[in-house]
Write a structure and sequence with these properties.
Chain lengths: 234, 191
């Protein structure tokens, strides 16, 4: 039987703790007992895979999912998915969801007094190509209020969900926009001690993917965990 | 060159719109081998309040103890009607449910087989990085020798083992408890 190669532990400070007091929802939901460290087994280094055959053509263009054009600023969000060893991760499912241009989600729990857009659902998915690339066409999401603290507003963001090659590589995160004045005040963006790690959640404006007369491009690369070493025969 | 993994962020309260297209409550297609089980339970917070906005994902081997994944090189059969992946949000009452099969034995540390188990990821508003746990099966003699279960202090192991529902042997009950004396054991996998 082959020994199972572990995934690298996160660099200190680059991942949030469960309890983050400024984020009020974490207080009753963060486990209080220490998590039990376990070795990697075949269970954790395997995981579900989803091929391009389950992706509908319009799923990566959030501006083409209805009969009309959604309101707001059209943008291209693209980038690469790599592991910590700089290897591109091909055929990885990327799922996104977001508010519309007015800062409203198409979700019954969202009570923000801003209009829904009949031409925008705010969800998409795609799989990465052989070079680990993905690309979405969407609308720049609006900022919106929440009740975490007095006058709390979430910076504009797009939610990302990725599987990667294994159960161990699963990642859910959020992408932000450069220059957003709300970023310094957002407890979710600021949940991580390491400032550089935090700032890697901010996409960058990208001329290369900007389409003349059509849409601004934003680039956002995602890094999933990498293996420590290759498996060795025991 | 070495990169650092992207920082995790909460799934937030509105994940349904982006993730429900891939919900899977029933993992088993017709003709798949194995003992059918329904797994049901609740996700509750530190006040014992059932949480209507959690998302669970499960990953498991088939009845032969084979994962549908290239890294599983065991000489055991795969079945096209069983992928081993499930995803469901909790209901308004904090309930979740999966219909699946009891997995077979998969290899574990020290060359020993692991007791049958499911891997579980839990996501929700207020949780900045996913919670990782395992669900084991009741009346399973191999639980006592399971390497991973034995890393958990004995008093807390029961939080990882489902119970048979009264009057329905095909249904297992297992809750995810975030805080308090019955707090579920969560594992440290880094993310």
């Amino acid at each position: 039987m082959k020994r199972v190669a572990a995934y690298r532990a996160p660099h200190p400070g680059t991942q949030p703790s469960h309890l983050h007091l400024p984020y009020v929802s974490s207080v009753k939901r963060a486990p209080t007992k220490p998590q039990v460290p376990i070795p990697y087994t075949l269970s954790e280094v395997t995981g579900p895979s989803f091929g391009p055959e389950i992706i509908a053509p319009e799923a990566s263009d959030l501006t083409k999912q209805h009969s009309g054009e959604p309101l707001g600023e059209r943008i291209i969000v693209s980038g690469r998915v790599l592991d910590e060893n700089s290897r591109p991760l091909a055929n990885t499912l990327v799922e996104i969801w977001q508010a519309n241009a007015a800062g409203r989600y198409l979700h019954e729990v969202d009570q923000h007094e801003a209009p829904l857009d009949p031409n925008f659902s705010g969800c998409g998915h795609t799989v990465t190509d052989e070079e680990g690339r993905y690309r979405f066409v969407t609308i720049r999401p609006g900022e919106y209020p929440w009740r975490n603290h007095y006058n709390a507003w979430r910076p504009a963001h797009i939610h990302f969900s990725l599987f990667g090659p294994a159960f161990a590589t699963r990642l859910v995160t959020q992408m932000y926009f450069p220059g957003d004045p709300l970023l310094p005040f957002d407890p979710i963006f600021n949940c991580t001690a390491d400032e550089k790690a935090r700032n890697r959640l901010i996409s960058s404006f990208d001329w290369e993917t900007t389409m003349p007369e059509h849409a601004l491009g934003y680039r956002f690369d995602l890094i999933l965990r990498g293996r420590e070493a290759t498996p060795m025969e025991e | 060159m070495s990169l650092q993994a992207t920082t995790s962020q909460t799934v937030g309260p509105f994940f349904k719109i982006g993730l429900q297209w891939l919900n899977r409550e029933n993992l088993v297609e017709e003709g798949v081998s194995g003992e059918r089980v329904t797994i049901q339970g609740r996700v509750v917070d530190g006040d014992g309040v059932p949480l209507p906005d959690a998302l669970l994902e499960i990953w498991q081997a088939n009845a032969y103890g084979k994962y549908d994944h290239p890294e599983d090189t065991q000489d055991k059969p795969l079945e096209p009607g069983f992928k081993g992946y499930g995803r469901m949000p909790t209901t308004a009452n904090g309930l979740f449910r999966f219909a699946t099969i009891k997995p077979g034995l998969v290899p574990g540390p020290e060359g020993k087989e692991q007791a049958p188990h499911l891997l579980v990821s839990v996501f929700m508003r207020g949780v900045l990085r996913r919670l990782v746990t395992r669900m084991y099966f009741p009346d399973e003699p191999r639980n006592d020798a399971d390497f991973i279960l034995n890393l958990v202090e004995p008093a807390r192991r029961s939080t990882l083992i489902a119970r048979k529902a009264a009057g329905d042997p095909g249904t297992l009950e297992w809750n995810v408890v975030l805080q308090g004396p019955e707090e579920t054991v969560f594992f440290d996998l880094g993310l």
